[in-house]
Amino acid sequence: MRVLMNQRDRLCGDLNRVKGRIHNWLDRFFPEYTQVFKDWEGKASLITLQHFPLPQDVVKAGETSIVATWKKNDVKRAVGPKRAQLLYGKAQKSIGLTEGVTAARHELAMYLEQYVMLCRQIEQLMELVEELVKQIPGASHMMSIPCIGLITVAGFLAEVGNLSGYDHSQQIVRHAGLSLRENSSGERKGQTTISKRGRCRLRALLFRAALTMVAKNPEFHALHRYFTTRRDNPLKKKQSMIAICNKLIRVLFELGTKQKEYDARKVLGPHREAQLQAAA
């Protein structure tokens, strides 16, 4: 699992670099393009870039030919004569570079080929990951948590390994470098921070998941609000996110080891629920 997820990280890094190069190309040769297609990664946009990459290609082809090309490639949503008219108008008034157009076409074609290849490789790799995750006891139960999907669970298991090798969730907290320690020297009492003596990829994955949970999961959102607004010892937002990460570890460990579905009522527990009601 770890090998596959490491491969995914490398492929995603390569994909982001290719995306950056395509953005750079558009800024140089067709800066108005994103005014027509805000998301250049959509199907209609990719077909347009493949067939009419430069403003002069758009003008030469004309609106009718552009619409026909979209229809021929089975693009039916959100494109039609009005979008073609807008693209044609932007191309006519484009301030993009007009020199070296042959090399520019070749450059973009190469980037688009790399983009499609990397997307396909990531998709194929994630199919392997999904099959592997299905074979791991408790993994499907971990994915029953709202806002937690395949990538998070696969990444978590890739970093921590078999959950049966842990006696309690606090061991995973230490493994992630999220256990607290005090930075002090001599008589000076320093701030309490996380140790960071663990797997940085696991820590980063948990922080990304925690951000999503706080934004979209009602229980974790309520917990974050309580941590940051309680009367006694309110936490700063970053400190609260660390606490949320640790809570997420405990929930994942509980569901994975006991192989039970997520229950929103049990996430907070009666004691914490009473605290939340008192703070409301």
Automatic annotation (TrEMBL):
Pfam families: Transposase_20 (PF02371)
GO molecular function: DNA binding; transposase activity
GO biological process: DNA transposition
InterPro entries per UniProt: Transpos_IS110 (IPR047650), Transposase_20 (IPR003346)
Residue ranges occupied by any Transposase IS116/IS110/IS902 C-terminal domain in the UniProt entry: 140-224
Protein name: IS110 family transposase
Organism field: Effusibacillus lacus
Taxon lineage: Bacteria, Bacillati, Bacillota, Bacilli, Bacillales
